[in-house]
Design brief:
This protein has about 425 residues and is an all-alpha fold. Helix content is about 60%, strand content about 0%. The chain contains 20 helices and two strands. A two-stranded antiparallel sheet has the order 1-2. The longest helix is centred in the first third of the chain and has 46 residues, at about 55-100. The protein starts with a helix and ends in a 7-residue tail after the last helix. The model is unreliable at about 15-30, about 30-55, about 95-100 and about 240-255 (pLDDT under 50). Critical mediator, in cooperation with CASP4, of endoplasmic reticulum-stress induced apoptosis. Required or the activation of CASP4 following endoplasmic reticulum stress. Keywords: Apoptosis, Endoplasmic reticulum, Glycoprotein, Membrane, Transmembrane, Transmembrane helix. InterPro entries: TMEM214.
Length: about 425
């Protein structure tokens, strides 16, 4: 080993001097300078520059220092980039959270942070008149021609498709725009008749009526009953909703109620006699007789009366008049509605002539003897039993009595009628009621 190498080795071992046996004397070194580290990763090195002997050691140390500094710089840059990305993500989240904090949450220290749901855009309100004005008679005529050919032997399907056409036309009309229960309950019979046909274009109404008139009596009768059941189903749903029954409210029918009323009104006006065929069902089934169903029944009879006054009076005397005799089944509001209907029928142009000429319909009298007896008792009660409605009965009684006694004199049917009337007339006379005739 040469001398320089020995010296270097001694320096690396940290020896301050060589043994005397080696022939070297004690060597003193300049005082080391204390340089602060560049960073936590930089080693503490103090190179010597006063001797060429240590130049290789200096060079080696500087290389290691440079590599360490480069590694530290790379690590620091990566850490800074990562920290910047984290800060950016946090800043974005904070911005989003702030946007969803309702006003006043900052004042509460952010104790309650509730996300504000975006409001759904409100659907434009479409009235019955708006939807009806968009209907086109030519389009309807083409549709009816098509379904009549496609389902030539299935009139029930034709009528269902007919209802679907109007259902689509009024699909955008909400229940709030057509509160039919409120309308029927609060309207007079005169206004009730126009609900909701007053909005239907005349050409659409005529096209529909002509087509309905070509359907069979039986098919239209079944169709009318189906429409009526739809209305009662909707009534039950609303009554369940009022009582807080969510289960019932979820069973709402998909058909537009506007369309149901429109199609039913047109059917009753063009085929009014189908209502007489449904009378036994409506009288026997309790679901058609409750007090809350009365406005619907009155509305239906008023629509049929528009097509045939005789049918209207027949339905009134056979279904509604008996309700007036029951104290528990008729309150003042119901009595008023029932009387409004018959007053409307009797006030129609030429009603007296029409009703007397049609006093007998298919062997059935419009005002049978039993109905005349009820009318007599309501018109001529005991003085202590008179009510506000008594005067209204007195006004209509003469015309209704004429209709009850109309017919071919001397015929077998008329003799039977007179016999029945005589029997209860004698009974009434015994009770002090002498103003029957």
């Amino acid at each position: 080993m040469d001398e320089n190498s020995a010296i270097i080795e001694a320096i690396l071992r940290g020896d301050d001097h060589q043994s005397q046996d080696s022939g070297w004397k004690t060597v003193s070194y300049s005082k080391r300078r204390k340089n602060p580290p560049h960073n936590s990763l930089q080693p503490s090195l103090t190179p010597f520059h006063n001797s060429d002997v240590f130049r290789s050691v200096d060079q080696h140390s500087e290389d290691r220092l440079r590599r360490a500094q480069e590694s530290a710089a790379t690590a620091a840059a990566a850490a800074a980039a990562l920290q910047s990305a984290v800060r950016s993500k946090q800043h974005s989240d904070d911005d989003d959270s702030d946007a969803e904090i309702p006003a006043g949450a900052a004042d509460n220290g952010g104790a309650e942070v509730k996300k504000v749901k975006p409001k759904k855009p409100k659907k434009p309100k479409v009235s019955v008149g708006d939807a009806a004005s968009k209907m086109d008679a030519d389009d309807l005529a083409a549709f009816l021609l098509d379904i009549s050919a496609s389902y030539e032997t299935h009139q029930d399907i034709q009528l269902m498709r007919f209802a679907d056409y109007f259902g689509r036309a009024f699909a955008s009309v909400s229940a709030a725009q057509f509160p039919w229960m409120k309308i029927l309950k609060e309207s007079t019979v005169a206004k009730m008749i126009e609900v909701p046909l007053s909005h239907i274009p005349e050409a659409v109404y005529k096209t529909s009526g002509d087509w309905i008139n070509q359907r069979s009596f039986e098919a239209v009768g079944s169709f009318v009953l189906w429409l009526l059941d739809n209305i009662h189903a909707d009534l039950a749903i609303h009554q369940g909703t009022v009582k807080g029954s969510k289960k019932v409210a979820q069973q709402a029918p998909s058909k537009s109620q506007v369309a149901i009323f429109v199609v039913l009104a047109m059917s009753l006006r063009r085929k009014p006699e189908v209502l007489i065929s449904l009378l036994p069902i409506m009288k026997e089934n309790p679901k058609y007789q409750a007090q809350d169903k009365l406005p619907v029944t009155v509305w239906m009879i008023s629509q049929a009366s528009q097509g045939d006054l005789a049918v209207g009076l027949y339905m009134w005397t056979h279904m509604l008049l008996p309700m007036l005799s029951g104290k528990s089944s008729c309150n003042p509001q119901s009595r008023d509605l029932i009387l409004q209907l018959v007053e409307r029928i009797l006030s129609s142009p030429k009603s007296r002539t029409i009703l007397i000429n049609g006093a007998v319909r298919k062997g059935e009298r419009l005002v049978p003897p039993s109905a005349l007896e009820l009318l007599m008792r309501a018109t001529f009660p005991a003085p202590s039993a008179r009510v506000k409605a008594t005067e209204r009965f007195e006004a209509m009684y003469p015309t209704l009595k004429e209709v009850a006694l109309a017919g071919s004199s001397g015929s077998k049917a008329m003799k039977q009628v007179l016999l029945q009337i005589m029997n209860f007339a004698i009974k009434a006379a015994g009770e002090g009621e002498t103003k029957l005739f």
